[in-house]
Task: structure prediction
Amino acid sequence: MHPPDPGIDLAVTHPPTSFAAPIGIQVAEPELRRRLAKTAYRLAHDSLLLERLNQRVYELLITDRRQRRERSGQSEHWL
Result:
């Protein structure tokens, strides 16, 4: 696994349910729009970086699912 790319922020800043409109409508700040466009371009042209992002999203989904099951008291036989 490669170290995180300092030019790309993979941290989650908004819950997934907060996104409903196209990103161009959601983001009014020019600097954030520029960073998002740069990140999208890099992901489209770097398959390794895209794979790392996919892995991180998968890890977040698994963690979220586990936490939801723990809160609801269900067993973890799905793993």
